[in-house]
Specification:
The strands form 3 sheets. Strands 1-9-8-5-4-2-3-14 form an 8-stranded mixed beta sheet, with helices on both faces. It starts with about 25 loop residues before the first helix and ends with a helix. Strand 6 and strand 7 form a beta hairpin. The protein is globular and about 75 Å long. The protein is about 40% helix and about 15% strand. It folds into 2 domains: about 150 residues, Aspartate Aminotransferase, domain 1 (Alpha-Beta Complex), CATH 3.90.1150.10; about 230 residues, Aspartate Aminotransferase, domain 2, CATH 3.40.640. By secondary structure, it is an alpha/beta fold. Bound molecules: pyridoxal-5'-phosphate (PLP).
Protein backbone atom coordinates (compact mmCIF):
# COMPACT_ATOMS: atom_id res chain seq x y z
CA UNK A 1 0.00 0.00 0.00
CA UNK A 2 2.82 2.35 0.88
CA UNK A 3 4.76 1.22 -2.18
CA UNK A 4 3.10 3.68 -4.54
CA UNK A 5 5.63 6.29 -5.44
CA UNK A 6 3.12 8.55 -7.16
CA UNK A 7 0.97 10.74 -4.95
CA UNK A 8 -1.97 8.79 -3.69
CA UNK A 9 -5.33 9.87 -4.99
CA UNK A 10 -7.25 8.86 -1.91
CA UNK A 11 -8.92 11.56 0.14
CA UNK A 12 -6.43 13.50 2.24
CA UNK A 13 -6.46 12.71 5.95
CA UNK A 14 -5.58 15.83 7.93
CA UNK A 15 -3.83 16.00 11.27
CA UNK A 16 -6.56 17.93 13.09
CA UNK A 17 -9.17 19.53 10.83
CA UNK A 18 -12.05 21.74 12.03
CA UNK A 19 -15.22 19.83 12.94
CA UNK A 20 -18.40 21.87 12.77
CA UNK A 21 -21.55 20.72 14.53
CA UNK A 22 -24.02 22.40 12.18
CA UNK A 23 -25.36 24.67 14.88
CA UNK A 24 -22.75 27.36 14.14
CA UNK A 25 -24.90 28.73 11.28
CA UNK A 26 -27.73 29.51 13.66
CA UNK A 27 -25.48 31.75 15.76
CA UNK A 28 -23.85 33.36 12.73
CA UNK A 29 -27.30 34.13 11.27
CA UNK A 30 -28.26 35.68 14.58
CA UNK A 31 -25.24 37.97 14.42
CA UNK A 32 -26.16 38.98 10.87
CA UNK A 33 -29.84 39.52 11.65
CA UNK A 34 -29.02 41.77 14.60
CA UNK A 35 -26.12 43.43 12.71
CA UNK A 36 -23.64 42.74 15.50
CA UNK A 37 -20.75 42.41 13.03
CA UNK A 38 -18.11 43.85 15.32
CA UNK A 39 -15.54 42.93 17.97
CA UNK A 40 -18.27 43.26 20.57
CA UNK A 41 -21.85 42.07 20.97
CA UNK A 42 -24.13 39.54 22.64
CA UNK A 43 -22.32 36.42 21.37
CA UNK A 44 -19.06 37.66 22.90
CA UNK A 45 -20.70 38.27 26.26
CA UNK A 46 -22.42 34.89 26.17
CA UNK A 47 -19.33 32.99 24.96
CA UNK A 48 -17.24 34.51 27.75
CA UNK A 49 -19.81 33.50 30.35
CA UNK A 50 -20.10 30.00 28.96
CA UNK A 51 -16.32 29.43 28.87
CA UNK A 52 -15.92 30.81 32.41
CA UNK A 53 -18.62 28.41 33.55
CA UNK A 54 -17.07 25.46 31.73
CA UNK A 55 -13.63 26.22 33.17
CA UNK A 56 -15.01 26.90 36.64
CA UNK A 57 -13.43 30.35 36.89
CA UNK A 58 -14.88 33.76 37.72
CA UNK A 59 -14.35 35.45 34.38
CA UNK A 60 -13.16 35.10 30.79
CA UNK A 61 -12.17 37.61 28.10
CA UNK A 62 -12.57 36.68 24.43
CA UNK A 63 -9.64 37.75 22.24
CA UNK A 64 -8.38 37.35 18.70
CA UNK A 65 -5.96 34.48 19.41
CA UNK A 66 -4.38 32.35 22.08
CA UNK A 67 -1.15 34.24 21.47
CA UNK A 68 -2.92 37.54 22.21
CA UNK A 69 -4.24 36.03 25.45
CA UNK A 70 -0.69 35.09 26.55
CA UNK A 71 0.55 38.57 25.64
CA UNK A 72 -2.19 40.19 27.73
CA UNK A 73 -1.60 37.84 30.67
CA UNK A 74 2.10 38.73 30.75
CA UNK A 75 1.38 42.43 30.51
CA UNK A 76 -1.24 42.23 33.27
CA UNK A 77 1.40 40.62 35.49
CA UNK A 78 3.63 43.61 34.86
CA UNK A 79 6.20 41.87 32.67
CA UNK A 80 8.37 44.43 30.94
CA UNK A 81 11.80 45.10 29.44
CA UNK A 82 14.58 43.07 31.02
CA UNK A 83 12.32 40.81 33.08
CA UNK A 84 12.69 37.04 33.08
CA UNK A 85 9.84 34.64 32.36
CA UNK A 86 10.14 30.86 32.66
CA UNK A 87 8.46 28.75 30.00
CA UNK A 88 8.15 25.08 29.03
CA UNK A 89 10.64 24.33 26.28
CA UNK A 90 8.61 21.54 24.70
CA UNK A 91 5.87 23.62 23.05
CA UNK A 92 4.78 25.69 20.08
CA UNK A 93 6.60 29.00 19.60
CA UNK A 94 3.44 30.97 20.44
CA UNK A 95 3.91 30.09 24.11
CA UNK A 96 7.11 32.14 24.28
CA UNK A 97 6.90 34.80 21.56
CA UNK A 98 4.83 37.19 23.74
CA UNK A 99 7.65 37.19 26.32
CA UNK A 100 9.83 38.81 23.68
CA UNK A 101 7.01 41.17 22.56
CA UNK A 102 7.40 42.76 25.99
CA UNK A 103 11.18 42.92 25.82
CA UNK A 104 11.54 40.21 28.47
CA UNK A 105 13.78 37.13 28.29
CA UNK A 106 12.56 33.54 28.35
CA UNK A 107 14.32 30.82 30.33
CA UNK A 108 13.29 27.38 29.11
CA UNK A 109 12.53 24.40 31.30
CA UNK A 110 12.78 20.75 30.27
CA UNK A 111 9.95 18.20 30.33
CA UNK A 112 9.63 15.22 32.65
CA UNK A 113 8.74 11.77 31.32
CA UNK A 114 5.36 11.18 33.02
CA UNK A 115 3.51 14.07 31.36
CA UNK A 116 6.02 15.29 28.72
CA UNK A 117 5.36 18.70 30.32
CA UNK A 118 7.42 21.06 32.47
CA UNK A 119 9.60 19.25 34.99
CA UNK A 120 8.99 20.41 38.59
CA UNK A 121 12.52 19.25 39.38
CA UNK A 122 14.09 21.43 36.68
CA UNK A 123 11.78 24.29 37.61
CA UNK A 124 12.93 24.09 41.23
CA UNK A 125 16.59 24.23 40.14
CA UNK A 126 15.97 27.18 37.85
CA UNK A 127 14.11 29.12 40.53
CA UNK A 128 16.80 28.44 43.14
CA UNK A 129 19.42 29.75 40.70
CA UNK A 130 17.32 32.80 39.92
CA UNK A 131 16.77 33.48 43.62
CA UNK A 132 20.52 33.31 44.24
CA UNK A 133 21.10 35.72 41.37
CA UNK A 134 18.37 38.02 42.68
CA UNK A 135 16.38 37.82 39.47
CA UNK A 136 13.27 35.73 40.09
CA UNK A 137 11.01 35.32 37.07
CA UNK A 138 7.96 37.56 36.80
CA UNK A 139 5.85 34.59 35.67
CA UNK A 140 6.02 30.90 34.76
CA UNK A 141 4.24 29.73 31.61
CA UNK A 142 3.14 26.12 32.00
CA UNK A 143 2.02 24.33 28.84
CA UNK A 144 -0.33 21.33 28.78
CA UNK A 145 0.90 19.63 25.65
CA UNK A 146 -1.45 17.69 23.37
CA UNK A 147 -4.08 17.88 26.12
CA UNK A 148 -2.05 16.26 28.91
CA UNK A 149 -1.99 18.35 32.10
CA UNK A 150 1.36 19.20 33.62
CA UNK A 151 2.01 18.29 37.28
CA UNK A 152 0.13 21.30 38.61
CA UNK A 153 0.25 20.46 42.34
CA UNK A 154 4.04 20.26 42.34
CA UNK A 155 4.43 23.29 40.08
CA UNK A 156 2.07 25.45 42.12
CA UNK A 157 3.77 24.43 45.37
CA UNK A 158 7.10 25.70 44.02
CA UNK A 159 5.71 28.86 42.45
CA UNK A 160 3.54 29.75 45.44
CA UNK A 161 6.53 29.39 47.72
CA UNK A 162 8.37 32.06 45.71
CA UNK A 163 5.13 34.00 45.01
CA UNK A 164 5.54 33.70 41.27
CA UNK A 165 2.30 33.73 39.26
CA UNK A 166 1.58 30.87 36.85
CA UNK A 167 0.08 31.30 33.39
CA UNK A 168 -1.40 28.07 32.06
CA UNK A 169 -1.05 27.76 28.31
CA UNK A 170 -4.07 25.51 27.90
CA UNK A 171 -4.33 26.20 24.16
CA UNK A 172 -4.26 22.46 23.52
CA UNK A 173 -6.02 21.23 26.66
CA UNK A 174 -9.51 22.72 26.70
CA UNK A 175 -11.75 19.92 27.95
CA UNK A 176 -8.97 18.16 29.90
CA UNK A 177 -9.04 17.84 33.67
CA UNK A 178 -6.42 17.63 36.41
CA UNK A 179 -7.61 16.04 39.68
CA UNK A 180 -11.16 16.59 38.49
CA UNK A 181 -10.78 20.30 37.76
CA UNK A 182 -10.65 21.90 34.31
CA UNK A 183 -7.24 22.47 32.75
CA UNK A 184 -6.53 26.20 32.62
CA UNK A 185 -8.26 26.99 35.92
CA UNK A 186 -5.28 26.54 38.26
CA UNK A 187 -2.97 29.45 37.48
CA UNK A 188 -3.35 33.17 37.97
CA UNK A 189 -4.35 33.11 34.30
CA UNK A 190 -5.30 30.40 31.85
CA UNK A 191 -5.42 30.78 28.10
CA UNK A 192 -7.30 28.83 25.45
CA UNK A 193 -6.97 28.89 21.67
CA UNK A 194 -9.72 28.45 19.09
CA UNK A 195 -7.39 28.29 16.10
CA UNK A 196 -8.59 26.09 13.23
CA UNK A 197 -6.58 23.06 14.35
CA UNK A 198 -7.60 23.08 18.03
CA UNK A 199 -10.18 20.81 19.66
CA UNK A 200 -12.89 23.42 19.09
CA UNK A 201 -12.46 26.40 16.82
CA UNK A 202 -13.80 29.82 15.91
CA UNK A 203 -11.49 29.75 12.83
CA UNK A 204 -9.18 31.93 14.91
CA UNK A 205 -9.55 33.20 18.43
CA UNK A 206 -8.57 32.83 22.05
CA UNK A 207 -9.70 33.28 25.62
CA UNK A 208 -8.02 34.64 28.73
CA UNK A 209 -9.50 33.24 31.94
CA UNK A 210 -8.93 34.08 35.58
CA UNK A 211 -10.56 34.30 38.98
CA UNK A 212 -9.31 37.88 39.19
CA UNK A 213 -12.23 39.80 37.70
CA UNK A 214 -10.51 43.17 38.16
CA UNK A 215 -7.43 42.10 36.17
CA UNK A 216 -9.61 40.71 33.39
CA UNK A 217 -11.48 44.01 33.23
CA UNK A 218 -8.10 45.63 32.69
CA UNK A 219 -7.31 42.98 30.09
CA UNK A 220 -10.41 43.90 28.09
CA UNK A 221 -9.38 47.55 28.36
CA UNK A 222 -5.91 46.78 26.94
CA UNK A 223 -7.48 44.63 24.22
CA UNK A 224 -9.60 47.54 22.97
CA UNK A 225 -6.84 50.11 22.43
CA UNK A 226 -6.82 51.20 26.11
CA UNK A 227 -9.47 53.86 25.63
CA UNK A 228 -9.94 56.05 28.67
CA UNK A 229 -13.45 56.91 29.85
CA UNK A 230 -14.12 59.91 27.63
CA UNK A 231 -16.31 60.39 24.57
CA UNK A 232 -13.40 61.82 22.66
CA UNK A 233 -10.61 59.32 22.05
CA UNK A 234 -8.25 59.69 24.96
CA UNK A 235 -5.41 57.34 25.82
CA UNK A 236 -3.02 57.30 28.74
CA UNK A 237 -1.60 53.83 28.14
CA UNK A 238 -0.74 51.73 25.13
CA UNK A 239 -3.26 49.10 24.12
CA UNK A 240 -3.96 46.57 21.40
CA UNK A 241 -6.71 45.61 19.00
CA UNK A 242 -7.17 42.12 20.39
CA UNK A 243 -10.90 41.54 20.84
CA UNK A 244 -12.77 38.64 19.25
CA UNK A 245 -15.39 39.26 16.57
CA UNK A 246 -19.01 38.74 17.58
CA UNK A 247 -19.53 36.57 14.48
CA UNK A 248 -16.71 34.26 15.53
CA UNK A 249 -17.92 34.13 19.12
CA UNK A 250 -21.15 32.73 17.66
CA UNK A 251 -19.18 29.88 16.08
CA UNK A 252 -17.47 29.34 19.42
CA UNK A 253 -20.76 29.02 21.30
CA UNK A 254 -21.95 26.24 19.00
CA UNK A 255 -18.56 24.52 19.24
CA UNK A 256 -18.55 24.67 23.03
CA UNK A 257 -21.90 22.86 23.08
CA UNK A 258 -20.19 19.80 21.57
CA UNK A 259 -16.81 20.06 23.32
CA UNK A 260 -17.38 17.02 25.53
CA UNK A 261 -18.29 14.92 22.48
CA UNK A 262 -15.16 16.14 20.74
CA UNK A 263 -13.02 15.07 23.70
CA UNK A 264 -14.62 11.62 23.70
CA UNK A 265 -14.08 11.26 19.94
CA UNK A 266 -10.38 12.18 20.21
CA UNK A 267 -9.92 9.81 23.12
CA UNK A 268 -11.48 7.05 21.02
CA UNK A 269 -9.04 7.81 18.20
CA UNK A 270 -6.13 7.59 20.64
CA UNK A 271 -7.36 4.29 22.09
CA UNK A 272 -7.78 2.74 18.67
CA UNK A 273 -4.20 3.64 17.73
CA UNK A 274 -2.96 2.27 21.02
CA UNK A 275 -4.83 -1.01 20.50
CA UNK A 276 -3.67 -1.32 16.91
CA UNK A 277 0.00 -1.04 17.88
CA UNK A 278 -0.17 -2.76 21.25
CA UNK A 279 1.97 -5.70 20.21
CA UNK A 280 4.76 -3.59 18.75
CA UNK A 281 7.90 -3.08 20.80
CA UNK A 282 9.38 0.38 20.61
CA UNK A 283 6.04 2.17 20.20
CA UNK A 284 5.34 4.22 23.34
CA UNK A 285 2.24 6.37 23.55
CA UNK A 286 2.13 9.65 25.43
CA UNK A 287 1.22 8.72 28.99
CA UNK A 288 -1.81 9.95 30.89
CA UNK A 289 -0.87 10.91 34.43
CA UNK A 290 -2.97 9.42 37.23
CA UNK A 291 -5.88 11.66 38.29
CA UNK A 292 -5.80 13.51 34.99
CA UNK A 293 -7.99 13.15 31.93
CA UNK A 294 -6.48 14.34 28.67
CA UNK A 295 -8.60 15.58 25.79
CA UNK A 296 -6.08 13.68 23.61
CA UNK A 297 -6.03 16.62 21.22
CA UNK A 298 -3.35 14.87 19.20
CA UNK A 299 -2.31 11.25 19.49
CA UNK A 300 1.43 11.46 20.14
CA UNK A 301 3.87 8.61 20.55
CA UNK A 302 7.55 7.87 20.40
CA UNK A 303 9.06 5.25 18.12
CA UNK A 304 12.34 3.71 19.19
CA UNK A 305 14.62 3.56 16.16
CA UNK A 306 16.84 0.79 17.57
CA UNK A 307 13.87 -1.37 18.44
CA UNK A 308 11.86 -0.84 15.24
CA UNK A 309 14.36 0.19 12.59
CA UNK A 310 12.02 3.05 11.72
CA UNK A 311 12.97 6.71 11.74
CA UNK A 312 10.37 9.43 12.11
CA UNK A 313 11.25 11.16 8.82
CA UNK A 314 10.92 7.84 6.98
CA UNK A 315 7.51 7.15 8.51
CA UNK A 316 6.32 10.70 7.79
CA UNK A 317 7.31 10.24 4.18
CA UNK A 318 5.46 6.94 3.89
CA UNK A 319 2.33 8.53 5.36
CA UNK A 320 2.63 11.57 3.07
CA UNK A 321 2.79 9.25 0.07
CA UNK A 322 -0.57 7.89 1.20
CA UNK A 323 -1.94 11.44 1.41
CA UNK A 324 -1.95 11.29 5.20
CA UNK A 325 -0.84 14.32 7.21
CA UNK A 326 1.25 13.48 10.28
CA UNK A 327 3.80 15.66 12.05
CA UNK A 328 6.85 15.45 14.26
CA UNK A 329 6.22 16.63 17.82
CA UNK A 330 7.07 20.26 18.62
CA UNK A 331 10.73 21.13 18.33
CA UNK A 332 11.83 22.30 21.80
CA UNK A 333 12.18 26.07 21.93
CA UNK A 334 15.68 26.01 23.43
CA UNK A 335 16.77 24.22 20.21
CA UNK A 336 15.25 26.89 17.96
CA UNK A 337 17.55 29.38 16.20
CA UNK A 338 15.24 32.13 17.49
CA UNK A 339 16.17 31.30 21.09
CA UNK A 340 19.74 30.07 20.65
CA UNK A 341 21.02 32.37 23.38
CA UNK A 342 18.33 31.56 25.92
CA UNK A 343 19.02 29.58 29.07
CA UNK A 344 17.69 26.07 29.52
CA UNK A 345 17.31 23.82 32.57
CA UNK A 346 17.30 20.06 32.03
CA UNK A 347 15.25 17.55 34.04
CA UNK A 348 18.32 15.51 34.95
CA UNK A 349 21.84 14.77 33.77
CA UNK A 350 22.31 13.34 30.31
CA UNK A 351 20.07 13.96 27.34
CA UNK A 352 17.23 16.37 28.12
CA UNK A 353 13.82 14.68 28.15
CA UNK A 354 12.29 16.99 25.54
CA UNK A 355 15.23 16.47 23.16
CA UNK A 356 14.72 12.72 23.34
CA UNK A 357 10.98 13.15 22.73
CA UNK A 358 11.67 15.42 19.79
CA UNK A 359 13.97 12.88 18.15
CA UNK A 360 11.54 10.00 18.41
CA UNK A 361 8.09 11.62 18.61
CA UNK A 362 5.30 11.75 16.06
CA UNK A 363 1.70 13.06 16.02
CA UNK A 364 -0.84 11.01 14.09
CA UNK A 365 -4.06 12.28 12.49
CA UNK A 366 -6.44 12.80 15.40
CA UNK A 367 -9.46 14.76 14.21
CA UNK A 368 -12.73 14.22 16.03
CA UNK A 369 -14.44 13.74 12.65
CA UNK A 370 -12.05 11.00 11.58
CA UNK A 371 -13.87 7.84 10.48
CA UNK A 372 -12.85 4.32 11.42
CA UNK A 373 -12.10 3.68 7.73
CA UNK A 374 -9.71 6.65 7.68
CA UNK A 375 -8.01 5.49 10.82
CA UNK A 376 -7.58 1.98 9.42
CA UNK A 377 -5.82 3.57 6.43
CA UNK A 378 -3.31 5.24 8.76
CA UNK A 379 -2.83 2.10 10.84
CA UNK A 380 -2.37 -0.13 7.76
CA UNK A 381 0.20 2.20 6.30
CA UNK A 382 2.23 2.16 9.51
CA UNK A 383 1.94 -1.62 9.81
CA UNK A 384 3.25 -1.86 6.27
CA UNK A 385 6.28 0.25 7.10
CA UNK A 386 6.96 -1.88 10.18
CA UNK A 387 6.77 -5.10 8.17
CA UNK A 388 9.17 -3.82 5.55
CA UNK A 389 11.69 -2.54 8.05
CA UNK A 390 11.50 -5.86 9.92
CA UNK A 391 12.23 -7.61 6.62
CA UNK A 392 15.16 -5.33 6.02
CA UNK A 393 16.72 -5.89 9.42
CA UNK A 394 16.23 -9.67 8.97
CA UNK A 395 18.15 -9.49 5.70
CA UNK A 396 21.01 -7.53 7.19
CA UNK A 397 21.14 -9.60 10.39
C1 LIG B 1 -2.08 26.99 19.27
C2 LIG B 1 -1.22 27.27 20.40
C3 LIG B 1 -0.99 28.57 20.88
C4 LIG B 1 -1.43 29.79 20.14
O1 LIG B 1 -2.77 29.91 19.91
P1 LIG B 1 -3.24 30.82 18.66
O2 LIG B 1 -4.71 30.93 18.88
O3 LIG B 1 -2.90 30.08 17.42
O4 LIG B 1 -2.56 32.13 18.75
C5 LIG B 1 -0.24 28.74 22.01
N1 LIG B 1 0.30 27.71 22.66
C6 LIG B 1 0.14 26.45 22.24
C7 LIG B 1 0.75 25.35 23.04
C8 LIG B 1 -0.60 26.18 21.09
O5 LIG B 1 -0.71 24.93 20.66
Amino acid sequence: MCDDVIMNEQKRIYLSPPHMSGNERKYIDEAFETNWIAPLGPHIDAFEKEIAEYAGVNDAAAVSSGTAAIHLALQLLGVSEGDIVFCSSFTFVASANPIRYLGAEPVFIDSEPETWNISPQALQLAIEDAAREGSLPKAVIVVHLYGQSAKMSEILAICNHYEIPVIEDAAESLGSTYKGKPSGSFGKFGIYSFNGNKIITTSGGGMLVSNDVELLRKGRFLATQARDLASHYQHSSMGYNYRMSNVLAGIGRAQLEVLNDRVQARRNVFEKYQESFSGIRGFDFMPELEHTRSNRWLTALTIDEQETGITIPFLLEALAAENIEARPVWKPLHMQPLFENSRFYAHSEGEPVCERLFKSGICLPSGSSMTVVDQVRVVDCIHDVIKKSAGKSAQTA
